[in-house]
Amino acid sequence: MKASINVKKKRSFKKTFMGMVRFLAVLFAHAVSGPALAQTFTPVVEDSIDFVITGTTPAKTDSVAWFLVAPYRQCLVPRVPVVDGRFRIAGRLPRHTFLQIGDFEENDLQFIVDDVPTDINLATGEMTGSPLQRRFIEGQLRQRAIARSIEPWWDSLSEDRQDSLRLMAEGDINPATPQDSADSEKFSSAMADMNACCRQNIRRNLDNVIPAYYLHVHYGALTPSEKQEFMRKDAPYARHPAMQRPWQRYQGEELQRTMTGVPFRDFTATDSLGQTLRLANYIDGQHYVLLDFWASWCGPCIGSFPHLRELSETYKDKGLRLISISLDKDRDAWLAALRSHRNPWPQLHSPSNTGTEGQDAADLYGIVTIPAYVLIAPDGTVIALDKDLATPAQLNAKLAEVMGEASAK
């Protein structure tokens, strides 16, 4: 899976949901974009304005933290003091910037920067402020109510049990007992309710910028028809800076929809000795070619190597050629990863976002998250791409299908 990162720590259901949403969405750390995809989006950054957000918290804390979200743009998280239960955050930021405020006891809410002062109770969500701010907060309170309805049950589970249910939801493991099935269904039902609430929050705000936040975080959980519904170039939120990531993903998916059944797109890349090679060198009329897009900094990519080794061993004598293509910008980091993992199939280097349109392997195949795969037939026809090979099960099924046909022939 693209972002199956297990955290050995109990988490609230809301945090678990947000982690799962980020798994389904294009993760910050594992997102890549080529120049052609990037240059089609020009964000509109509005004029900076002074803003003030004040509030109360019942938490036993001497400070609250705030930071920019969607997109996240800060390394340092500022804190402001809480005095007699009250805090005050003031500054100057572009209008309609998204920021988050939290009191370290899970009373976190996101806000929109506007020129109407906001006052809020972080625990209850009671507030005064602009109508736009109120709509944003009300949507989050609906999500919070769903999360808190299931949290007593969730908190009663052990850390290992929580991890297992997350893996079941991600499709990495199957329920083994009736209790597994019951718990998995309960967890999945709550996740579905949260997802439905996110969709509702988008549909209720198609006339303003709020959808930019939800699309930035929640895009990967949308169905194809919902993506077409929400990804509108004429929408009020279409050019919000938070929309860069959803547009890159959407454009990559649109490109991939046109590529199945057509000839492969050739590109040049270098091997570990610095020799320049072309993808065409590996299309020989005899082998299926599976392209594996990865990078040394991508944890899920490294985690996929054992599965790829199994596939390589299973199919190497049956007509499959596996080729890994690193998108590392740092060639030395790529070479170090090669020495560490020693995968026994061709390794090529094609840095992402090189600035030269058409020379970037990821760009040519609409790859915006990794790990990602492209399967090419012996005659050079693209059989399947990332969207159809996103999970180990999908990859296994497709290879079994085509390699079975190859054996029959």
Global structural class: alpha+beta
**N-to-C series of helices and strands:** HHEEEEEEEEHHHHHHEEEHHEHEHEEH
Largest sheet: 5 strands, mixed
Number of domains: 2
From the alpha-carbon coordinates, what is the Rg to the nearest angstrom? 23 Å
How many individual helices?
13
Shape annotation? globular
Low-confidence stretches: 1-10, 17-29, 33-39, 354-358
Mean pLDDT: 86
Helical amount among residues, as a percent range? 25-40%
Strand content: 15-25%
Distance between the termini: 32 Å
Q: What is the total tally of β strands?
A: 15
Describe the strand arrangement of the main beta sheet, using strand numbers.
Answer: 13-12-11-14-15
Can you describe this structure in just a few lines?
The protein is of the alpha+beta class.
How would you describe the overall organization of this protein?
Strands 13-12-11-14-15 form a 5-stranded mixed beta sheet. A 4-stranded mixed beta sheet has the order 4-1-7-8, with no helix packed on it. Helix 3 runs antiparallel to helix 5, helix 4 (159-170) packs across helix 5 and helix 5 (178-203) packs antiparallel against helix 6 (210-218). With 409 residues, the protein is α+β, with helices and mostly antiparallel strands. Residues 1-10, 17-29, 33-39 and 354-358 have low confidence and may be disordered. The chain is globular. It folds into 2 domains: 44-249, no CATH class; 268-408, Glutaredoxin. The chain has helices spanning 13-24, 35-38, 131-155, 159-170, 178-203, 210-218, 224-230, 244-257, 299-303, 305-315, 331-341, 361-364, 392-408, and strands at 48-56, 63-68, 79-81, 86-94, 98-102, 109-112, 118-121, 127-128, 268-270, 276-278, 288-294, 320-326, 347-349, 372-376, 382-384. Strand 5 and strand 6 form a beta hairpin. The two termini are 32 Å apart.
